[in-house]
Design a protein that fits this description.
Layout lengths: L6 H8 L9 H10 L2 E4 L1 H4 L11 E4 L2 H9 L4 E2 L7 H5 L10 H10 L4 H21 L6 E3 H6 L1 H11 L6 H12 L5 H24 L5 H7 L1 E2 L2 E2 L2 H31 L2 H9 L4 H11 L6 E5 L3 E3 L2 E3 L4 E4 L1 H5 L33 H18 L4 E2 L8 E2 L5 E2 L3 E3 L2
Parallel strand pairs: 2-10
Antiparallel strand pairs: 1-2, 3-7, 4-14, 5-6, 7-10, 8-9, 11-14, 12-13
The structure holds protoporphyrin IX containing FE.
Length: 403
């Protein structure tokens, strides 16, 4: 049955791609109410007994988001235990300190800037160029379908050392797994199938380790014991969607920002030292994932607003990135904006493990397009190309002409 529907389409729809063109005006209204606002749980959960509804708060200002994310003790990642925790198994995303730091340290080094250099040359560049080869002579392309959607999953699969021919299947399982919030049964089923697929590969790497990330994980030791299969699987069930879903969106969003501001695209083409600030502005302006979750463990106060123990907290990183008290004209895409930390990779103990990889991938993909496709521009005959979605955001297509 799962074969008959497109899980990518379903995931986009559930993330509001059809119903929410932009959540930013709503975020601005919330910020005007205060740095942390109480959310109407009844409206969110579609009604229910008010006595039994959870208390939900949203951190919306930059300072509030930063305070919540820095304090992993008061704001626990256990919020994900009943959703991502169920499908991923034991995984750093749902752990708190000190357990979180111990497990994260097993793989942290493999994602350091230094360790990424060889992946850039041996994996990312050939993948990106191979995809561009397929349309470079055509004069037109849909950059989402033909480039930004497929390339990051090829990269993470390559880093894990998974066979290329299995890619469509595990990409599908990975997106079905993170769809658990709206399709519980399919999420559980796909997590199981991903586990069955990966377990023999994990066993094989224990016997014959290579240079891939699965081998790094199987060699990992805590208190003198090797990581068991469940924990290795927990990492893999996190890395596959984390590596694929986000970078596809961030690179698409940056390309949309550049293509819809052609003078900035041309400036970048002429002066490649602008790339770093262009990537950061793309991330700030249109973050792939607008919000993450935490659970408040004790009665506390954030930016003057009391939050009770047990409350769920929506940490709206997209809203923090558009906080007008921090960024002038936050809705504007402007690669010349003075550099200021944004919240797209979160902050504190759970700060994105793959941020250097994501930045490097985006650098490679945008650089290759500028090098290889002169006159790259949005196809003027394409109507209403735009970024869409509430939770996860990206353009659904980027029709371009070049040459
Ligand atoms: C632009 C692309 C990306 C964005 C915007 C992004 C964003 C984030 C955010 C916001 C978190 C924090 C989640 C939370 O605490 O609730 C996170 C965590 C994480 N990300 Fe990324 N991510 C990106 C790319 C990647 C890539 C390419 C990988 C790896 C292949 C990756 C791996 C992870 C992992 C493993 C965590 C969990 C870290 C922890 O819990 O300690 N991410 N990411």
């Amino acid at each position: 049955m799962s074969e008959s529907v497109d899980p990518f389409e379903l995931f986009d729809r559930a993330s509001g791609a059809d119903t929410c063109r932009t959540p930013y005006p709503e975020f601005a209204v919330q910020r005007a109410e205060g740095p942390v606002v109480k959310v109407n749980a009844s409206a969110m959960m579609g009604g229910g007994d008010p006595e039994n509804l959870p208390e939900i708060y949203a951190a919306v200002s930059y300072e509030a988001v930063s305070q919540v994310l820095r304090d992993g003790k008061t704001f626990s990642s256990g919020a994900y235990k009943d959703s991502m925790g169920v499908v991923m198994g034991p995984t750093i995303l749902v752990m708190d300190e000190p357990e979180h730091g111990r497990y994260r340290s097993l793989i942290q080094m493999a994602f350091s800037k230094k360790s990424l250099a060889h992946w850039e040359n041996d994996l990312v560049r050939p993948i990106v160029n191979g995809l561009i080869d397929k349309f470079a002579d055509r004069g037109s392309a849909d950059l989402v379908r033909e480039l930004t959607f497929p390339f990051p999953v090829h990269v993470i699969a390559g880093m894990l050392g998974l066979p290329d021919e299995d890619l469509p299947q595990f990409h599908r399982w990975a997106v079905e797994l993170i769809s658990v919030a709206f399709n519980w049964e399919q999420g559980i089923k796909s997590a199981g199938m991903l586990g069955e697929y990966l377990t023999p590969i994990i066993e094989a790497r224990r016997e014959n380790p290579g240079n891939d990330l699965i081998s790094v994980l199987t060699a990992g030791e805590l208190d003198g014991n090797r990581l068991d299969n469940d924990h290795v699987l927990g990492f893999l069930r996190l890395l596959l969607p984390a590596g694929a879903e986000t970078t596809y969106r961030s690179s698409s969003n940056l390309l949309y920002g550049l293509l819809s501001n052609p003078e900035q695209l041309e400036a970048l083409r002429e002066e490649r030292s602008l790339m770093e600030q262009a990537i950061e502005e793309g991330l700030r302006w249109e973050v792939p994932l607008t919000g993450i979750g935490r659970q408040c463990t004790v009665d506390t106060v954030v930016e003057g607003v009391p939050i009770p123990a047990g409350a769920s907290v929506q940490v709206l990183i997209g809203s923090a990135n558009h906080d007008e008290s921090r960024y002038d004209e936050p809705e504007k895409f402007d690669i010349y904006r003075p550099a200021r930390q944004h919240m797209s990779f979160a902050f504190g103990p759970h700060r994105c493990l793959g941020m250097h990889l994501a930045r490097m991938e985006t650098d490679v993909v945008v650089g290759a397009l500028l090098d290889r496709l002169p006159g790259l521009r949005l196809d003027p005959s394409a109507e209403d190309v735009h970024i869409t979605g509430r939770g996860f955001r990206a353009p659904r297509r980027l029709p371009v002409l070049f040459g």
